[in-house]
Write a structure and sequence with these properties.
The chain has 213 residues and is of the alpha/beta class. Helix content is 25%, strand content 23%.
Length: 213
């Protein structure tokens, strides 16, 4: 009678050693690469305050301040910056015909922009600049419609002069506003760079408001 195939085969148990040399070589190369890359990775933090949500706590009502709070708000849209406070919204730029001021308080401006920050893309607001060709050469400069951060700082300096005790500013933005525009507005609101390298503190307490609809 013929044997079953399983019975015709001779199985021998052999001890096999794992070859760990390739893995050890990989680890020995990976560790120096990780150590070197730590030198080039920079981590920056932006201190912001989330809006408070919740009911008032029980107890004595808070005392009313001698001067009402400023409640300064910077709203970012794809048309520019709109500044508002307790007294109302700051007017925008008047029309060339001498009509009433319309639009945002600080509209977009056409400016030469260095491409080093925007290689392969365009500066914000990209909804406006998306029709132009993206930056290719990091050393080049191109004309784009950009947020006027210098004008924003200038107007905030005037507000700070009128309200020197105010520290807080609320920043609200449309959902389409890019992260770069948000951080640029924060930097412009926090401090002013003066001559000689000194910096003047403006509104260091930045509160992020929920996005506009």
């Amino acid at each position: 009678m013929a044997k079953k195939p399983s019975e015709r085969r001779n199985y021998e148990d052999e001890d096999m050693e794992l070859n760990l040399t390739p893995m050890m070589n990989l680890i020995s190369l990976l560790i120096p690469c990780l150590l070197i890359s730590m030198v080039f990775v920079e981590i920056a933090t932006i201190n912001v305050t989330a809006p408070a949500i919740g009911s008032a706590s029980d107890g004595d009502p808070p005392e009313k301040p001698d001067k009402p709070p400023l409640n300064l708000v910077i709203t970012i849209t794809d048309k520019g910056y709109t500044l508002a406070a307790s007294g109302g919204v700051l007017p925008g730029v008047a029309s060339a015909e001498g009509g009433e001021a319309t639009g945002p308080t600080i509209p977009l401006k056409t400016s030469e922009v260095g491409c080093v920050r925007y290689v392969g893309t365009v500066p914000p607001p990209r909804a406006v600049n998306g029709t132009q060709s993206p930056c290719a050469d990091p050393q080049a400069q191109k004309q784009f419609q950009v947020y006027d951060n210098a004008k924003l700082t200038e107007m905030l300096v005037a507000i700070k002069d009128a309200f020197p005790d105010e520290q807080r500013v609320t920043i609200a933005a449309e959902s389409s506003v890019e992260f770069e525009a948000l951080t640029d507005a924060m930097d412009a609101a926090r401090e002013q760079s003066e001559e000689g390298g000194t910096k003047r503190e403006l509104f260091p307490e930045v509160v992020l408001s929920p996005g506009l609809t």
